[in-house]
Amino acid sequence: MTEVVGNYGGESAGDVVEEYEVPIRGFLFREGKLEGVYVEGGMLTVTEELPRDVHEDILRGRAGRRLMVREVRYRGMNVLEVYIQDGYRAWPIHVAEFLEED
């Protein structure tokens, strides 16, 4: 867990960010477009729009086989951000609010 001490990107002082990687088990494509990513425990739907070349790179196996997951807690909100890596670029594929479990 990381607590932000200054302003950086979209985060500001006091925000809490947790980052970890999740292995990808497979992909769901529909008409050449990424619709979902299979991970242990189920499928994660794609909620963000990706550039066409990123869809093609994933389809051809050029993208990474791990997802980077960020749990960001700021201003009373909990946001889950999931990224896929395509070479040196990271693209958001899923962004959603989540409830904190006690």
Which features does this protein show?
elongated; seven-stranded antiparallel β-sheet; mainly beta; disordered N terminus
Count of helical regions: 1
User: Would you tell me the structural class of the helices and strands?
Assistant: mainly beta
- Following the backbone from N to C, one meets helices and strands in this order, namely EEEEHEEE
For the biggest sheet, the summary is:
7 strands, antiparallel
What share of the residues lie within helices?
Answer: under 10%
What can you see in these coordinates?
By secondary structure, the chain is mostly beta strands. The chain is 8% helix and 55% strand. Strands 1, 2, 3, 4, 5, 6 and 7 form a seven-stranded antiparallel β-sheet that branches. A hairpin with a 2-residue loop joins strand 3 and strand 4.
Secondary structure elements and pairings:
Layout: E1 2-3, E2 16-30, E3 33-39, E4 42-45, H1 52-59, E5 66-74, E6 77-86, E7 89-97
Antiparallel strand pairs: 1-2, 2-3, 2-5, 3-4, 5-6, 6-7
